[in-house]
Amino acid sequence: MERYPVKGPLTSFAMLVFSILILLISPLIVPGSGEEAEETRAEYADPEITLYFFQEVFYTTAEPDVVLSVEVTGTIICDLPEMAPDSLNCYVDVFFESHSWTPSESIHYFFNSENRETQFNCFYTPSRPVVPAGEIINISVRAFWNYPASRQSGEAKPSYSSIEVTSYGRVLLEPYVLDDPSRLVIDEKLEGRLEVKNRGNDDDIITLEVVSAPPNVEVVLEEERLVLDFWEVRFVNITILQKGGDPQEGEIVLRASCTKPGSINSRGMTVGIESKEKTGEERSGQIIMISIPIIGGIILTAIIVIVMKKFEKKRS
Fold it and tell me: At 19, is the secondary structure helix, strand, or coil?
């Protein structure tokens, strides 16, 4: 018959001793527990990351075709724990934010005990072609760090700044209604209109002036000083008069200037002028038209005088 071992007091005691040994040596086998684990976590304490912009406010005109984007700059400092080994590396991802303008993509940085500080820059693109003066865009920078060796990660305290849009001037001047310049003759005038456009990003005062004109040509502007709102358009009457003298071909140059500072402060407009005297046929026609009634009157008067004289002779 087959026999099975019987658990006696000695066997139970042996199993108890084995269990106690397992409990005693387990802290030595499992990493990251006990006092040694606490010392390891102290070596990998969170880094101290500081972010700040170089300016509290960044100023720009955001002028179309001139300022395509606005650059903002700052500094990032990453201080590792004092007890950290030289081999400890910290990776930091920097993100830029805005409630309306579009920032450039995030930037990835690498820090260690020898490299703890660097500068950052970001480009913000305006949300629309023309941004009114005085608009303020709030911006921020955030950083997320991680230790690849220990798989620790966290977020740094963000930093804040703003972009403020300043004024710039831009004015456009275009002929809107103007008679054919080739029909300008002595003592006659051309009448038309100019279209004046405020294309700056703020209210502005526009000054119109005649820079040059051919001899004996007078140019009269209905208004020379205009107060225009942001992107307002105004029409101004213009009169061109040839005042005697020898008719000459030439150009009229007008200029519109704005008072707001900027890269574009004025616009010129050139109007071709071809002056003509009245032709000899036109002058002869006028003389003939005037002479016919005079000659007719003289003939009629002579006939009346002759008839009256003949009548008086018969009576006598």
Answer: helix
Report, as ranges of residue numbers, the positions in the chain whose pLDDT lies below 50.
Answer: 1-6, 30-42, 279-295
What the block records as the tokens of 27 is: 């802290």
pTM exceeds cut of 0.85: no
d(CA 185, CA 288) in angstroms, rounded, equals 21
CATH class belonging to 34-165: mainly beta
CB distance 62 to 54 below 8 Å: no
Tokens of 160: 């804040």
Question: Where exactly are the structural domains of the chain?
Answer: 34-165, 171-273
Give the count of beta carbons closer than 10 Å to the beta carbon of residue 223.
14
Distance, in Å, from the CA atom of 221 to the CA atom of 238, rounded to the nearest integer, reads 5
d(CA 229, CA 67) in angstroms, rounded, equals 22
For 49, the token pair is 């990351």
How far apart (Å, rounded) are the C-alpha atoms in residues 129 and 108?
Answer: 31
- How far CA 226 is from CA of 206, 233, 255, in Å, comes to 5, 10, 13
- Give yes or no for a contact between 173 and 257, defined as CB atoms under 8 angstroms apart: no
- The number of CA neighbours under 13 Å toward the Cβ of 216 is 17
- Per DSSP bridges, beta strands 217-221 and 233-242 are antiparallel
Cβ neighbours of residue 165 closer than 8 Å, sequence gap 6 or more: 60, 61, 62, 131, 132, 133, 134, 135, 136, 137, 201
pLDDT at 32: 46
What is the enclosing helix (H) or strand (E) of 296?
helix 280-315
In sequence order, the β-bridge partners of residue 127 are none
CATH class of residue range 171-273: mainly beta
Q: Are 224 and 254 in contact (CB under 8 A)?
A: no
Alpha carbons 204 and 233: distance in angstroms, whole number: 12
Cα separation, 71 vs 312, whole angstroms: 112
Is the distance from CB of 156 to CB of 91 less than 8 angstroms?
no
